[in-house]
Predict the 3D structure of the following.
Amino acid sequence: MQPAPAHLAEYDRSEDLPLLRAIRQIERRGPAPGIAAFFDPASSTVSYLVSDPDTRRAAIIDSVLDYDVASITTATASADGIARHAEAAGLEIDWHLETHIHADHLTAADHLKHRLGGRIGAGSGVVPVQRDFAAIFGLEGASAPRETDFDRLFADGEEFAIGNLPALVLHVPGHTPADVAYLIGDRLFVGDTLFMPDYGTARADFPRGDARQLYRSIRRLLSLPGATRLHLCHDYKAPGRDDYRWECTIAEQRAANIHVRDGMSEDDFVTLRETRDTTLALPALFYPSIQVNIRGGKLPEREPDGRRFLKLPLNAAGARRSWREP
Ligand SMILES: N[C@@H](CCC(=O)N[C@@H](CS)C(=O)NCC(=O)O)C(=O)O
Ligand SMILES: [Fe+2]
């Protein structure tokens, strides 16, 4: 038996074939993907346009549909900015990829699919999230979420392509059961797992969120080669930092992440994470976001008179921790 490479020393990947394939994909050093990042200050979300320089095929990751709480209106200015960028660069969009069912902003995947073509992809953990929230919102009949609201639900380790760029999906549950990271070429789009080292990690208190599972998902990602570049889904700045950042490396996370750097145990993390989570309010757009995002970004069905309504489950939030599994 060959000794384990140093970067794998702590995570037992002997049974983890998807991870081994990810490492091979990173080490293959194919053509670098083109990456443009778009930051939405309202939700602190980073959307990405990732393209294959050879074929001009591309994917949009975690797009944002603008939403104004006071006027209850959606707008497509942010998403259309990404679309114009893609069109000006001569890119054909094959995929609208979601890293999870976002709870803090509405996805523009459905809008962009209609504008640009392409298919909506997410992790297969979306299905239990759809089921949970269909019950919470009382969504039935035509308004019930379906697996087919997504064009493809990826299994852990599933591979696909963006032009000639290889892409691989890693399930990283913990923030929610549906979280995935997308490895595209040698770049890793981590969704809501790791944030910048000085901010830490994603919360784990949403329905079926699990801090212990999040720690394991993150240590799995951190066992990838140290030079691997990570692209984050959010940045909220951090105490002492006044600019937004959304890119770093595995080695930087392992050296400095305030929640999961090397040497911090699973129990340390769970205590830290769960303590912080008791201090966090639900995101301002939790209810509108989830309701739209479990259907891949489709807005609620129109009433006979053409109007659309979102639902609000009255008095459900007061007991938010009771959403956890018993
Ligand atoms: N104040 C923000 C909350 C954002 C939030 O809860 N973000 C999630 C990701 S969806 C998170 O993991 N935050 C981690 C933390 O603050 O520790 C809002 O209202 O949208
Ligand atoms: Fe999130």
In short: The longest strand covers residues 34-40. The chain has one domain: 8-289. The longest helix spans residues 17-28. The radius of gyration is 19 Å.
